[in-house]
User: Fold these one by one.
Assistant:
Number 1:
Amino acid sequence: AQSVTQPDIHITVSEGASLELRCNYSYGATPYLFWYVQSPGQGLQLLLKYFSGDTLVQGIKGFEAEFKRSQSSFNLRKPSVHWSDAAEYFCAVVPTSGTYKYIFGTGTRLKVLA
Amino acid sequence: DTAVSQTPKYLVTQMGNDKSIKCEQNLGHDTMYWYKQDSKKFLKIMFSYNNKELIINETVPNRFSPKSPDKAHLNLHINSLELGDSAVYFCASSSGQGDYGYTFGSGTRLTVV
């Protein structure tokens, strides 16, 4: 069965520091891959997505993610974190065949220290 | 302009009551979804409609009944509410079946007391 794992439940970084949020998936082929961000009391906002091609994808708010097929990973990165980046981050995969049903990871809560 | 709007934002009700949540999108998308987010932030799909046709119906108690009067609207009616129904319910929409990403509403926090 398909699954998505976000190993870090909580991450705390200082403002201005770099950030990497991990995401691993289990699927027989390469799925479509997404990162979403959820600010407190808000819905989820799409940060970036990967379908095929260049394995390094750029998103909004200065985020990027790298797809590594050999590691079944799609980690999210940001070179310099801002206090406004504090939020919950979700990785999601969509199988490329059949009904496109999102499978979300359990989320990583990011705390940013001033 | 709000792209995906849900009403109400908060809903507090007693066990056994029946309640509805409404969702509307003005993006011209043809697919809409209901997701449930539990207290641990886990998101699980409940239903999906494509052009008013039900295409995803997960293992959800039949007390939950979605209804899509047109492709811009997807409502969720819940009968005989139980304590375990307390959660945040998100509506989302997409073009096609979501391969370009979803647009989410801001959620409805349902509390059953």
Note: Chain A has a mean pLDDT of 92.
Number 2:
Amino acid sequence: QLQLQESGPGLVKPAETLSLTCTVSGGSISNSPYYWAWIRQPPGKGLEWIGTVYHTGTTFYAASLKSRVTISVDTSKNQFSLKLTSMTAADTAVYYCGRHSQWESPRTWGQGALVTVSS
Amino acid sequence: QSVLTQPPSVSAAPGQTVTISCSGSSSNIGSNFVSWYRQLPGTVPKVLIYDDNKQPSGIPDRFSGSKSGASATLGITGLQTGDEADYYCGTWDSSLGAVIFGGGTKLTVL
């Protein structure tokens, strides 16, 4: 059964860069027809897609975050990662990784990682 | 402001039927698959419907999905107090090249 698990710091200082990793088990990122996504949810608010990466390294980013986001894939480790620069309090959220097919939203989700931005 | 429009809240009594709408455009709902999620407080969104109207294994057939043009609908029959949650629709937008979600609908079972 496919499982995704986010890992990374729970606390980030303002202006710093957030780095999160999603480890995939029970399936392979390599040569997979699926896409691998990051989604976040600020406290008390709705879901916001951050971006998606394909195993070839092709990426898609939300327009509102594009200048600050980098998503990459490491097929040798079966992981994909998120980097978000210039963090502010508005970036405080639960960050989820997920998997989706082309033309749809994620069907499989990780458990989520709470990231708080505070000095 | 979300690309997909959902009502902020709906309510109904136990045992009744409720529908939640999700309105989009030809570049998203009109041409791609819609998923529906239920999110209880503090938990991961759970897929109730995928590919417009398919249920993952383990999801009761009280939950159904439909789509017409650029709008999709989630139906829930035989409402239970445990159905109180936030519900989201999601899909891919071919013009934006992005996954998009509705703003969410809070279901209250009176």
Note: Strands of chain B lie at 9-12, 18-23, 35-39, 46-49, 63-68, 71-76, 85-93, 98-101, 105-109.
